[in-house]
Structures are given as structure tokens and as C-alpha cells.
Specification:
The chain has 292 residues and is of the alpha/beta class. The chain is 43% helix and 15% strand. A hairpin with a 5-residue loop joins strand 9 and strand 10. The chain is globular and about 55 Å long. The structure holds nicotinamide-adenine-dinucleotide.
Amino acid sequence: MTARIIDGKAVARKLRAEYAERIADLKSTHGIQPGIAVILVGDNPASQVYVRNKILACKDTGIHSELHKLPADTPEETLLAEIDALNANPAVHGILVQLPLPPHIEVAKVLEHIAPDKDVDGFHLYNVGGLITGNTVFPPCTPYGVQKLLEHEQVEISGRNVVVVGASNIVGKPMALMLMQKDATVAICHKMTRDLAQFTSLADILVVAAGVPGLIRADMVREGVVVIDVGINRLPDGRIVGDVDFEGVSQKASLISPVPGGVGPMTITMLLHNTIVSAERGLAAQGRAKQG
Ligand code: NAD
């Protein structure tokens, strides 16, 4: 079997075109433009690239975006005060604090400070807790992007064996919960898992987010598996690869996402989606307040 390759760029493009229409409708019908504030503390080069891409994607889709750049030595209280102001600003529907933060700032405290209904990254405990009960308001963007890719490719999830390799708070764990919510049987593997292949070979759907190039080889998967590679690794020769041996595994898989061009374009797309949802929820709340 040779796998069909998922075109994440095309799926992201299609979704962004739909979102642009939703935004245009919000503007013309209700005079509301969804808005996001991105806070960047310090000058981490990778963070600067991520933030620039997010801001560009917002512009392209019609979302108002504002960048709040703070120096690396910004005291924690100053950052919290900045978040307070954005929480109170009705033109801002989403607040994103780019991670990592400088070591003198407590990440959990900062994330908890963002109003849950503006937490478009989905990292506030309220939204994380909602993943357990299946009613999170803002699913975290990368696993949400994977879910959308699976939906777009019409991959049946209910009753299937899903193996998630990687158990981070931002990708692996929420991914597992989101697919469990869709009635998959889910196993989560991590770096202490003994005999990874024993698990991966049971997968109907394999999601890999470990950050280890070549971690998943063809002999570790079953014929016909659906493989989603979340990993992004830069090799010494400059190439960007995922965690899956694409050449080998695509000979056995039925469907596979490449790196680059698979999950990557979906992550920012889901940030756009969450920001629009936040603006729409704000509008619905206003309507309820007027009625009441
Ligand atoms: P992380 O370092 O926080 O977590 C990695 C997880 O993988 C851990 O749970 C660890 O136990 C597990 N792991 C590490 N080595 C392993 C091994 N040999 N076998 C099994 N499990 C192993 O990383 P993260 O933030 O979750 O990101 C994971 C990967 O996904 C990275 O390559 C990252 O760049 C990429 N990523 C991509 C996107 C995107 O938009 N496509 C977004 C976020 C992260």
C-alpha cells in the first residue's frame, strides 16, 4: 500500500477562506471585527518568527491584531497588569502570550491570568479542564488542527485504536483527550514507555508529537494505518523533518501527513478559528444581556 498524502496547506487555505467570510459577515452585520492581542516578552528568535506568522495570518483573514512587545526583564507584575488591561478591552477577543517566557516569570500564573473567555490558545486551566468533560471552549490549536485534518479526510474515529506518541500539555495530552471524546480507544506513549512498537503496532490512527526525527519506522506500524506527524525537527543539514520516517511508513500507511505541509499550517488556522468563536460568543452574550 502507498499512502495518500494529506495536504495540510490546502485544508488550511480552504478553512481560512471560510473564516474570512465569517469575519466579513461579523463586520457587515454586527460591526464587529474579531481582534487578538499577542504578547511577546523578550527577543527569542523562534518566538519572533511564530508571532510574525500569527500576525500575518490574522491580517490576511481580516482579524485585527496587535503586538505587545515587552523587554526580557519585564517584571511579572507588569505582564499581569498588561493582561488585566487586555482582559478589560472589548475590542480584544483573544489574548495570546507567546511561550516560552523568561525564567523569572511563572508561566502557570500568567496563563491563569488570561480571562478564560479570551484564552484562544486554550491553555487556561478552565479550558484544559473542559477537555476532560468534553466541553472546552477553546481547544488548544495544534491538537485541534489534527482533529480538523482527520475530519476533513473523513477518518472514522469512533471505536478505532488511537496511539498518541508524546504526552506534553500542549499537544499529546489534549490530543488524547479530544480523540477519547470522539470514542476512540486511546493509548498515550512517552519517553519512558517500554517497547514503543508494541503500542504503535496496534494503532489504526497514530499521532506522533515527540520531537525525535525518525522515531517511527515502517516496522512499528500496521498496514493501512493513518499517521499524523506533528513533529518539527531541523536536521544538521538544515532540512525540516517530522518524527516519522516518511519514506518507509508511507509504504504501509493508508493516509499520512507530511512535514512540512501537514499539521503545521493548521495550528495558526485554529488560532484564527478560536478568535472568531470568541468574538461570536461575545456577540451572543451581548444579545442575552439586552434580552435579559
Ligand atoms: P515536548 O518536548 O513538550 O514533549 C515531547 C513528548 O514526547 C514528551 O511527552 C516526551 O516524553 C515524548 N518523547 C520524547 N522522546 C520520546 C521517545 N523517544 N519515545 C516516545 N516518546 C518520546 O514537545 P511538544 O511541545 O509536545 O512538541 C512535540 C513535537 O511537536 C516537537 O517536534 C514540536 O516542534 C512539534 N510541534 C509542532 C507543532 C505544529 O504546529 N506542527 C506545534 C507544537 C509542537
